[in-house]
Amino acid sequence: MTWVRYAIIAVILIIIAFVVIKSGKKDFKIEANKLVELLGGKKNIINIEASMSRFKATLKDVSLANKDGIQKLGAKGIVEIDNQIKIVYGQDAAKLKKCIDELLKQNVIK
Prior knowledge:
Elements: H1 2-24, H2 28-38, E1 45-51, E2 54-59, H3 67-73, E3 77-81, E4 84-88, H4 93-106
Antiparallel strand pairs: 1-2, 2-4, 3-4
């Protein structure tokens, strides 16, 4: 009878672990959509690149970018050079670029 209790406790712990793992994952499509908006919208983006931990966006008008908003979105650092914004995101840079590329191709974002 005690093994049943242990089995029930184990199942509950597994369920809790799945919930914690699931809640910790980012929704990169939503985050990518927000990032495009913070960069001044789809029409302001000329090109995007990602390498290692950095995300680079070449923009038509850099003044339209909301650097404070980008920082709040999770950027660890932002550098503006001419018409480019380089954002340090860590391991998320490539995932964000992939999602933004998909959104730009689908014309889903503004």
